[in-house]
Structures are given as structure tokens and as C-alpha cells.
Amino acid sequence: MSGADLALVAKEITVLRGRSASGKTTLLNLAGLLDRPSEGRVLFMGTDTRPLSDRELAQLRRGKLGYVLQDSGVVERMTALDNVALPGLFSGRTIDASRELARAALDDVELGGKAHRLVGQLSGGERMRVGLARALVLSPKLVICDEPTASLDAETAIMVVGHLRRAAASGACILAASHDPIVIDQADRTVTLTAGRITGDSMTKAGVGS
């Protein structure tokens, strides 16, 4: 990245667009506190992350950030319930409390009946919905999405985007790298990257009408 200046707003879906190697993944990793900038700074909810240790960054991420990955990022040898319970456990909640939250999140994505199935036994669309439930289970302030609908059929993609839209309406900030018109049509804002620079930043029809 070079000279990128981007402020994200609660209750908005911001979509990153750009060709391969344009800087989308780098920007997602910086915003998600997974990478550190070589220069400049990343502020998260008003906190300057530059002086924080790796442990402090991990603590800051817990419960406040959710990640929706293209390959769902779930653990196939674990059940859907235990996958979705992981963020609760990492945030210090008990097993019972974490599983209670996980059951509600799975019900929300219409997978409550498969809570005890191993994720490896689920379809690709179901695995993505497990990943979505895990990302949203703790109602994070920021949700980072890397091509969240790339491998999905249109019906499942619409469901995933609908859940992201509702998370935004509840106060979350959604940052998604995507070329999918289904995602872009629901975005409030579109940011275009070219060779590591922001070359476009505009409100969409969804954003203007909100």
C-alpha cells in the first residue's frame, strides 16, 4: 500500500474492488489487525495500534473483529457447533456460554439442525454459512470479508449478503473485497484500488438511499 487513507464507518458495507495484486488483501489484513503497516498507522475504534504488542493486538481483535474467508476458514474435523463456539472461548467465555451463543448463530443461518455434524460432512455452501455464523457470533464491531460469495450459488450468496446487511444495520462495519454484483449491489460504498493506491471512493445506490 502507498498513501492509502481510508476511514470506515459503522452501519456501512464498504466493498473493495481492484485487479489481482491491487492491494485488496493487504488492506484487509491491515484493517483486520493481522499485519502491521511498514509506515503510517492503523487506528481501531480510536486506538492507535502502532505501540501494541502482538498479544495486545490479539486481545483487541477478540470479540471485536469477525472474519469471513473465501474458503470459509472452518475446521473440518470439528462440529459446526464447536467451530462457531470458538470465538466465545477465545474471548474468555465458558464452554456452555459459548455453545449457547453458537446455537443461536447457527439457527440464524438455518443450520441449527446440523449443529453436531462434522463440518467436513457439510456442503460447500453450508461450510460457508458455518464460517459466517462464527464471524458474527459475538456481534463484532468490524467484519472483514475476503470474496465471501466467490464459490457460492446465487441463493446462498444472497443469504450471506443478507446477514452481512443485517449485521451492518445492527452497528457493525463491514469491509469486503468482492467482484460479485450481489455483494456490490448491497454495498453503501465502493473503494477502488490500483497498484496499492486508492483510485476511487464513492457511495453506491444502497448508501445514498440509506
Question: What does this entry look like structurally?
Answer:
The protein has helices spanning 24-31, 54-61, 80-90, 95-108, 124-136, 154-169, 181-185, 205-209; strands at 13-17, 43-44, 47-48, 65-68, 142-146, 173-177, 189-194, 197-203. The chain has 210 residues and is of the alpha/beta class. It has two domains: 1-64 and 141-210, Rossmann fold, CATH 3.40.50.300; 75-139. The strands form two sheets. The protein has a six-stranded mixed beta sheet with strand order 4-5-6-1-7-8, sandwiched between helices. A two-stranded antiparallel sheet has the order 2-3. The longest helix is centred in the C-terminal third of the chain and has 16 residues, at 154-169. It is globular, with a radius of gyration of 17 Å. The relative contact order is 0.21. The model has no long low-confidence stretch (mean pLDDT 92).
* CATH H-tier superfamily of the largest domain: P-loop containing nucleotide triphosphate hydrolases
Order of helices and strands: EHEEHEHHHEHEHEEH
Distance N terminus to C terminus? 30 Å
Looking at the structure, the CATH topology of the largest domain is Rossmann fold
The profile of the biggest β sheet is:
6 strands, mixed
The quaternary structure here is single chain
Radius of gyration using CA atoms only? 17 Å
In DSSP terms, counting alpha (H) and pi (I) runs of 4 or more, how many helices?
8
Shape: globular
Residue stretches low in confidence (pLDDT < 50, at least 5 long) are none
What's the total number of strands?
8
Beta fraction: 15-25%
Second rung of CATH, namely the architecture of the largest domain? 3-Layer(aba) Sandwich
**Helix coverage percent of residues?**
25-40%
Tally of domains: 2
The CATH class name of the largest domain reads Alpha Beta
Overall average pLDDT: 92
Name the strands of the widest sheet in spatial order: 4-5-6-1-7-8
Structural class: alpha/beta
